[in-house]
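Amino Acid Chain and Its Fold in Token Form
===========================================
Purpose: to set a sequence beside its fold so the mapping can be learned.
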Amino acid sequence: MDANVTEVDEDWTFLKRMGIEPGWNATALLLPCVVVVVLVAGLLHIYSLVSGLLSQSPVRNKVVLLSDALSALGKECASIFHKDGARLILCGKNWEKLQELSDDLLKVSDPSATFPPKLVLLDFGDTTSLPEAITEILECYGCLDALILNSSMKIKAPAHTLSLEVDKLLMDNNYFGPVTLAKGVLPSMMSRRCGHLLLVNSIQAKLAVPFRTSYAASKHAVQAFFDCLRSEVEESGVSVSTINFTFISSQASSGKQKNAVAKFFWSFLLFCTDLYTKKPLGVSPREAASEVAKTLSNKRKEVLMAPSLPKAAVYARSFFPNLFFAVMAAGVKDTTNTKM
């Protein structure tokens, strides 16, 4: 027994020389294990929270307005946002078609998880009716969380064939209308210190091509307005995003790509002049709507949704303007046909 006591005393003496108190030996060994367990549990908890937030739709229970719900893009957005539980305000020029769209959405949705859309007649071409429409929009839910400006009027014609009345109509639809609506709802957003203005714009806001003089001018103007507005309202908690598409085509997703080597230069000429190669250069309504939903979620300030060729043209316009204008001039075709 004395031998055993002596061995224990020697062990205690050794531990003391090592700076370890025998009474705390087990605790010292257990502490790192506890820390690891706590850290792992904390990381798992954070992961579950983040996963939950990401799984939730950014528009659920949010008041979202589509300025043109009757367009191909508007219908796709309406379908996506309605299923995700948004409080939709659908705008358009035709009341009967708005009602049909609303009925179609209600037929395929779960009433317990969705909200019946509100309908508002909105015509950017009639600027005198906008104040009344803005009042009606704000009365729908008392506020607005997201305004998606996807209305647009297109025209293609030589500049000298367009009358001043047509130029003014383009500016009303593509510039003055969206700007008036944005200004009308902006005070409400700023007072609540939240809101999102999303402009769906054309790539021609950055890249003007022949036979689109008035159209490109209106797109440049509205792009500049929202670029300036972004900085003005940032401190008020309002986000401003712009998405620039080549164009939206229902046949875009099914189109076959051309031979890049054999037809690259000619495709570039066509893009810079007439945008005739719609299949390889356009985006489908579903792709465009998905990008709109993604931008509402991540609040990116600017998105250029275009294939490599149009993007290259945008950069060429900025860094090699003489070459770009020479290519455009070489590809111009004589035409007097006007398309509305």
Observations:
- Residues 51-55, 253-266, 273-280, 334-340 have pLDDT under 50 and may be disordered.
